[in-house]
């Protein structure tokens, strides 16, 4: 009979699924009492700068599914927004950042977020001029994989203003 061994395989598979959530239990010393356990997951902040060199200082971000992330983008450049604006746009998994950037060229009125492709955006900051900062808090998608991000100001993607957020 093959049934017993199949049953054992199933039990083993279920047990494996069940133990994926270890690192949530950080046993911090109970300085602030029992209330600590009731707190929702903290928001993790990621600071990103962008300057006249048309590069993000952060090009790879790793995140956990469903994590709360706060991205703070600061434009540390000096050139006017009209010629050197920057934003941070996170696209959905599988979206084409080159195509998004190409469509953005004609979307000046909406700060280079093309209205027709808004459904590809997970989160984005405002378009920033020099010495400006903006932040966006969002929930990381639950699906594992690579999510492209870019600055959608014309031509900035082509010179390398891009990166990847990996959900794992
Ligand atoms: Cu830019």
Please report the number of helical segments: 3
Q: How many angstroms does the end-to-end distance come to?
A: 40 Å
Mean pLDDT: 85
Strand sequence of the main sheet, in spatial order? Answer: 2-8-7-4-5
Could you tell me the number of beta strands? Answer: 8
Q: What overall geometry do the principal axes of the alpha carbons give?
A: globular
**Beta-strand level of the residues, as a percent range?**
25-35%
Short summary of the structure?
With 168 residues, this protein is α/β, with parallel strands linked by helices. It contains three helices and eight strands.
Question: Which descriptors apply to this entry?
Answer:
168 residues; alpha/beta; 3 helices; disordered N terminus; binds copper (II) ion
């Amino acid at each position: 009979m093959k049934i017993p061994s199949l049953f054992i395989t199933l039990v083993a598979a279920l047990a494996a699924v069940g133990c994926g959530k270890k690192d949530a239990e950080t046993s911090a010393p109970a300085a602030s009492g029992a209330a600590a356990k009731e707190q929702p997951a903290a928001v993790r902040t990621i600071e990103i700068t962008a300057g006249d060199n048309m590069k993000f200082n952060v090009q790879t971000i790793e995140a956990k599914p469903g994590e709360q992330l706060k991205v703070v983008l600061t434009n540390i450049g000096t050139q006017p927004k009209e010629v050197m604006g920057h934003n941070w746009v996170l696209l959905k998994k599988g979206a084409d950042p080159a195509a998004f950037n190409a469509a953005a060229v004609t979307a000046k009125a909406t700060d280079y977020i093309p209205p027709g492709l808004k459904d590809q955006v997970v989160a984005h900051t405002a378009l920033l001029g020099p010495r400006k900062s903006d932040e966006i808090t969002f929930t990381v998608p639950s699906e594992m994989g690579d999510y492209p991000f870019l600055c959608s100001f014309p031509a900035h993607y082509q010179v390398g203003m891009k990166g990847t957020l990996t959900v794992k």
